[in-house]
Amino acid sequence: MVYSSRGDRGHRHLLLFFIILKAWESTSGQIHYSVPEEAKHGTFVGRIAQDLGLELAELVPRLFRVASKGHRDLLEVNLQNGILFVNSRIDREALCGRSLECSIHLEVIVDRPLQVFHVEVEVKDINDNPPEFPQTQKNLFIAESRMLDSRFPLEGASDADIEENALLTYRLSPNEFFSLDVPTNDEQVKPLGLVLRKPLDREQSPELHLLLMATDRGKPELTGTVQLFIKVLDANDNAPAFDRTLYAVKLPENVPNGTLVIKLNASDLDEGLNGDIIYSFSSDVSPDIKSKFYIDAVSGEIIAIGHIDFEESKTYKLRVEAIDKGSLPLAGHCTVHVQVLDANDNAPELTVTSLSLPISENAQPGTVITLINVSDRDSGANGEVICSLTPHVPFKLVSTFKNYYSLVLESALDRESVANYELVVTARDGGSPSLSATASVSVEVADVNDNAPAFAQPEYTVFVKENNPPGCHIFTVSARDADAQENALVSYSLVERRVGERALSSYVSVHAESGKVYALQPLDHEELELLQFQVSARDAGVPPLGSNVTLQVFVLDENDNAPALLPRPFRVALYTGEISTTRTLDEADSARQRLLVLVKDHGEPALTATATVLLSLVESGQAPKASSRVLAGAAGAEAALVDVNVYLIVAICAVSSLLVLTLLLYTALRCSAPPTEGACGPGKPTLVCSSAVGSWSYSQQRRQRVCSGEGPPKTDLMAFSPSLPPCPGSLNTTEDPQNYYVFYNYKFFLYY
User: Quick one: 31-124 is in which CATH superfamily?
Assistant: First the structure.
């Protein structure tokens, strides 16, 4: 006999579900693949790189990786060809149990820039699990007095597969007493059971052995069996009966131990021991249910004794039987369906993945920093999570997918203002009261070279005494860079220039690291009173930034120079009496010069005469101011200067021939002539004659005023020319003092 567990109505529901599923997939932004469970290692799943729009060459440089929470080794990607393949055994039943939907959610992450893709791989069910009964043998005790059409419930088989692979068909081994009653819907009000079709006769058949088979609709079909051992009992005609065959109870999770779930009530029409009822769970109830629920054998109360957790199991099915105490006990059966109500007892969970840190301070708004996954094991409003971020920060949370958020940069960063952000992400569910969880994200801001070194002031004044030792430290410059690491490493250098005919680096140097400025040689105040230069400070960033500071070094004077006489700028010719300059006259020379000219002869004893020359210096191009008389005298002197040479030649010849005679006559005159007093008054010329021959000696003191402009050396200023003196009787004491006189065989000396 063959019995189907589902009807046409079930097929229509399944078809409608697949239509809705396909419609949802067409609007989702995910990439969907499917793979059958139990596929071999290396089984092709999909060309994931191609489907994501990624080039094969960029998979390795962009650190292509696949993450799957809790299922990391099931699927893998070949980075050479971009194919997603099966890496290890996939057991759908282990992953999803009896759930109709079973998918592996993958996060595909690539860097540079950071991107995340969501891939869903649906695990297709194959018929790899046969139907299984709770027990391999079921013992039934049935009184021979039971009426025809009496029903005896059986625990059906279960199949870990889904859909067609879990649709079961039951068959009962051929027999003349029982038929199999299979429900036609999923309401489970009426479980699988045996129906008595022929009265039992314990004397003829005290025991019956039947085989119950369950076959699924997979390809190939798989079958599970259970042995039914039926023992025919005698006597007790009435079995206990419950008010209802199905009880539905709602129980909040986390109820304390001892909480009453339900009180069952069964009745037996028999009397005495045959009417006394004992309540118990059916023998096929799982140990897990027995660890969470307890039934009082006398009162029929079901009490919670273990931890009831909605997240562990949402429903419990309790098979209860009531057995009387007759010698041939009879039993009544019912099912208690316990629905566990969710309570907000699970705080949200936050998982921070793929940190892209540190983040450069010049990163553009919208840059993804990290990915955050939130989850809550509760359901309904208790499982709805909202994420928030620490306020007043340049970041924001962006929802990218269900329960996924991206932490992105919202506004510009400045490391010099804030170098590190300690962010707190808060996830809060919609329960009442709500529960929350937090995760800390430390965002370090990486430095870029956006600050040049800066000096405290743009200019410094330094005072240094002259004659300093070479290499002495005269000043230290210091610049501060607000950047960090190599961007803040400052090096110092001179801004090279020429100081006169020499390079600046021959005077001073600066230490590249410390900024100390050294004088490389002794400074001389008389040579250089002020040395002004610039020092450059430059950081080690790329590209480097720099700034300059000006140093004014004043060289202080010390008393290191003794007074010295400058060479006298005039000279007189030894025999001609010409006065000329020896060097260029400049502003340092006195504007008025006083010259004393000494004329000395070769007589015995030698006689001398002096003349004082006053010299005034004027600017070049200025005409000296003189009287007409002086100008006339100067013109006469120029005319007389022509005769000087002739007179000199005659005088030299005469003096040479008469030198000896003159000496003799002079000696005689000195011995015989009386002394003459008052011959010359102050400021008047005096003439002395020794003989009629004409030998004479004349001395006169004169003063000459000469004006001269600046000019080259050896410029003739004045000449003393010899002239014949008048006789003593004709001496004119009122003679013009500007006249020129002739001296014979005389030497001229210049005194200051």
Answer: Cadherins (2.60.40.60)
